[in-house]
Specification:
By secondary structure, the chain is an alpha+beta fold. The chain has one domain (4-171): Aminopeptidase (3-Layer(aba) Sandwich), CATH 3.40.630.30. 30% of the residues lie in helices and 34% in strands. The chain has helices at residues 13-24, 40-51, 100-114, 129-137, 168-171, and strands spanning 4-7, 56-63, 66-75, 84-91, 119-124, 141-152, 155-165. α1 (13-24) packs across α2 (40-51). The chain is globular. 26% of the residues are buried. Bound molecules: coenzyme A (COA). Coenzyme A binds next to β4, α3, β5 and α4.
Length: 174
């Protein structure tokens, strides 16, 4: 399948909410959030803001039949770690294993470098072997275990914190 990576536009909101609901409904529970994703209206407002922002980007992978993947990246809001951005990633079930996740991560790194970000991080649930393998393959390292970091209803979840340094200088930091 031919895939194009591009920035999301406000009119993608409905499909992006649908994709998140599909992935969030998978019984394995890959996402920290469940199927109750934000409304299309809230998503549209978020995308409208992202288009103009140097701090947030939403990238989509688009195939012949529409959007099949989404990556969000957001810079940390406080000055001492505004060089860090957090990533969220999902690919439609039927389209996995074809390099779409890898392509979205590469595009996010490109955007992050352009925005002066030197470290990207993410949280992944410990049972998500596919995602962890992908992140390690493209250079993310485990930085720790966040205990009871997410909650769905009354249930708390641990999450693995992973990160990638985008420049050599950052690797040498004290
Ligand atoms: C994680 C996810 C985004 C990967 O997207 P993708 O398009 O399939 O990714 P790619 O095709 O680029 O890479 C797939 C990689 O996953 C890993 N992988 C896939 N299935 C695996 C399995 N059963 N066990 C271990 N690793 C596996 C491999 O590293 C594989 O790379 P390889 O084919 O080169 O060996 C996708 O599986 C997904 O959306 N999952 C549900 C939502 C999710 O977990 N999001 C991440 C939350 S942190």
């Amino acid at each position: 399948m031919n895939i194009r990576i591009r920035h999301a536009r406000p009119r993608d909101a409905r499909r992006l909410v649908e994709l998140a609901r599909e992935v969030g409904s998978e019984p394995e529970g890959w996402l920290a959030t469940d199927a109750r994703w934000q409304s299309s209206g809230a998503e549209r407002a978020h995308l409208r803001a992202a288009v103009r922002s140097r701090h947030v980007a939403v990238l989509v992978a688009e195939g012949e039949h529409g959007i099949v993947g989404r990556l969000s990246i957001a810079r940390r809001p406080h000055a001492p770690n505004s060089h860090v951005a957090e990533i969220g990633l999902m690919v439609a079930l039927a389209e996995r294993g074809q390099g779409i996740g890898t392509a979205l991560l590469a595009a996010a790194e490109h955007w992050a470098r352009g925005a002066g970000i030197v470290k990207v991080e993410l949280h992944v649930l410990p049972h998500n072997a596919a995602a962890i393998a992908l992140y390690e393959r493209v250079g993310y390292e485990r930085e720790g275990l966040r205990r009871r970091h997410f909650r769905r209803g009354d249930v708390y979840f641990d999450a693995i914190l992973m990160a990638k340094q985008l420049d050599e200088l950052a690797r040498k930091s004290v």
